[in-house]
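Recall from the previous chapter that SMILES is a line notation for molecules. Here it describes guanosine-5'-diphosphate.
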Amino acid sequence: MTDAPEFTDAALEKGRVLCAGPVSFVLGAADLHQLPESNRPEVAFAGRSNVGKSSLLNALLNRNGLARASAEPGRTRELNYFDLGEGKMWLVDLPGFGYAKVSRTQVEKWTKLTRKYLRGRVNLRRIFLLIDSRRGLMPPDLEMMQMLDTVAVTYQIVLTKADKVKMSEVEAVRAEIQVALKTHPAAHPIVRMTSAEKGMGLPELRAEIGMLAEV
Ligand SMILES: Nc1nc2c(ncn2[C@@H]2O[C@H](COP(=O)(O)OP(=O)(O)O)[C@@H](O)[C@H]2O)c(=O)[nH]1
Ligand SMILES: [Mg+2]
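With both inputs in hand, we obtain:
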């Protein structure tokens, strides 16, 4: 069914332990000057507003309300920093993009901030780019991918809300994306499928994070 290599039990366990351990919200930064020092491995989560980013973060870390599941899409305009494992890793919730009601000025502000962020973090290991299983890649996702290719920051596609569609449909979306990724130099070749609701794919995503936490 899947061409993704299996994780070893040790890798799954490492990810589980890391994500079940201490995690704390550090700050929400609207400006890059506010960011903590890039002194440890860092991973960031990006995606269109309403893609299920807050839900996935809460599910991954097993803590409700850690990343506020915002009722108002497009509200979060900050880079939210979490300290994972008391100094082991920075986990970043990037502001959502592609929200229809946002003005052009705000889009430009977001683009500038994001590009600067991506260029400025020396220990940024990977961006998890969340894509709704029901929709696949949309124009704003492709724009984000292009930006990531340009700045050469590795990104991995994570399908969200996989419980909302038939497994055969999720597999089809995934296969289609994996083909599209071949022309994106900074893309990680493996697409992960998740459901925050059902817990699907979470152990594997935790294992990815655990591997990236290694210095
Ligand atoms: N069925 C289902 N719904 C989800 C899942 N993840 C998120 N949602 C719903 O999708 C909506 C947006 O989720 P949220 O996490 O706030 O998205 P964000 O804007 O990307 O942070 C909410 O109504 C969630 O309940 C999932 O795995 N399965
Ligand atoms: Mg959110």
